[in-house]
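Quick board copy: two proteins, each given as sequence then tokens.
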Amino acid sequence: MTINDLSGDELRAALLRTASGVYTTEAAIRLLLAHGSWPLRLDGAGLLTVSEATTAAGSNSCYAEVLWEEVIANIDAGHLLIGSGSEIRMLRIAASLAAGIPVDLADAVTGLDRHNLALVLAALSHANGSHEHKDYAASCGRPPSRHHRRHPRPRAGTGLRVAAMRESSGAALVRVRIDCAPHGCSQ
């Protein structure tokens, strides 16, 4: 079987199957899948490999792997891979998670929109062993509809109260209080 024989869904499954059990690689692959177009673009550039293996139960399974070092070499050389600044940043972060390739976080995260930053944070959390970001993992990062907000916004007249205090040791403390009436927050 070649990579050309795989549908988009089969390619996704093969990438996840290969990464399974290694949190940093899982996080990188989930980040690419959540972001969207990279798996097919990497395939088109010849930067994915595919193999087939027989399981203990006797069935065949496909495995796909990203050639991370070659991906970054192509980006650095300006060859093959074309994407927006945000897309390239996401790819560099994924390569860093999966293969330990250094990434300049000051550049990488400052160029991301809120949605992509949330995907990166979920990937970092996953790489560290947390699986509390199942809403992003289950949807592979598809954002909620625009009509649904994850966090309610306070109505006018309610909001944050911030108070600065000092402990006896001299350390500054900040206390934040969100004031919402019983139905004071709207969605």
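And the next:
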Amino acid sequence: MKKTVFVLLGLIVLTACNTEKKESNHHNDEHHHTHSSKSYRPDIDAHKLIYPSKAPDRIIVSLTEDATHSFAVNWRTNQQIETAFVEIAEETHGPDFLLDEKKQQFTAKTELITVENTRDKEPSVNAAYHSAIINNLKPGTDYVYRVGDGSKNKDTWSEWFQISTPSTNENESFSFIYFGDAQNDVKSMWSRVIRKSYKMMPEVDFMLHAGDLINHSESDREWGEWFYAGSFIHATVPSIMTPGNHEYDKSVHRTKLSALWRPQFTLPENGPLDELKETCYALDYQNMKVISIDAQSFNNSKHSREAQTKWLDSVLVNNTKKWVTITMHYPIFSTAKGRDNQELRENLKPLIDKYNVDLVLQGHDHTYARGYASNEGLGRTIVQDAGTVYAVSVSGPKMYESQNQDWMVKRGEYVQLFQIITVENDRIEYNSYTTKGEVFDSFSLMKNKNGKKTLTNNKSEVQMRLKKDFVKN
């Protein structure tokens, strides 16, 4: 987040206004916002989803390159809060962490932003976005933190949240949750997915979002829904995310990243180009290397394709971690009819094969499929040297149809899913769950000291679902 102030204006200009714009005293005094369209109904949901106040909202923690010793946190207020802080202390059995000698305070970076999404006729919103990276933490330690304006007024501080740093013992077990596209009806329909996942794995170490978190990249309301759905989970479980095509502005042909991506999230900046900071990156988590490829930027230009391909080669050739996971929005092997990401596959699959990458976690196709290139439709239970496992998943309610392909071990349609992945030394356990908490797909992956892998396909509780069985044309 480099710029102190910038203004985002929609490309669509409103040319007619029949009535004079009016705002209540409450709006003028507290929120400093304007309404760009009378068709919008701020009385229904604006105060929960769009307008900021002095109190922090949209609080989210993210993994850093050095998750063992640090974490990043972002949040939002109105523009009356020009300076913001993070307070942190080691967790205690009681309120004694509040003693001054036990607390540390960090000053956040602040950006003042005006968002006016005229495409969706949303009101103009003035907000301050705050971010900080909390460094020099102890590994394997429980902390509490809060964010606020530094005053003695508790109303302008968040509650105290708990967060833990990972252990330096690389073979200690950890778990993360992988989500495909949330995208549509996020408050109404995706909220139960992320909340169910947290209920089933409350000790989860981080969450991974494979793009298309929302539908319209510049919609403040949709981003508000995404933060509302995750609520305190976002503030206690670190996230990483890779952008999808819907995080890129459709009004400029998906060539520009959402103006809210970098203010809202703090992600590693170790990618190959300045324009790929916080979208293409790599980090280590215990004995796993996690890599994000910016698939939309990859599609947009030859320059980005060449840069990301060369960078991925350098990251993988220097990798010292036992396990490697790559996440990207567009699939190497598409599941949906009429879709094929040929350039992505031709550039990246040779590297994935060369370095024996373990997992590739993707989205975009609004169906589910999991398998490996050597499957050849055989459907074996135990597979020696299966190679890379590819997964495409969807967590939101938007559903497409797929077509059966030889690489698929399991596929499904018209099902909202989340995947809990547990890594323990030389073993990965992968379980895909429906919103009812039942297993839709499952496998175990063992890796010996020579890097040879044995994959076991486990039984599922839910059989294959097809959209045509539920929705009649």
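Board note added afterward: The mean pLDDT is 90.
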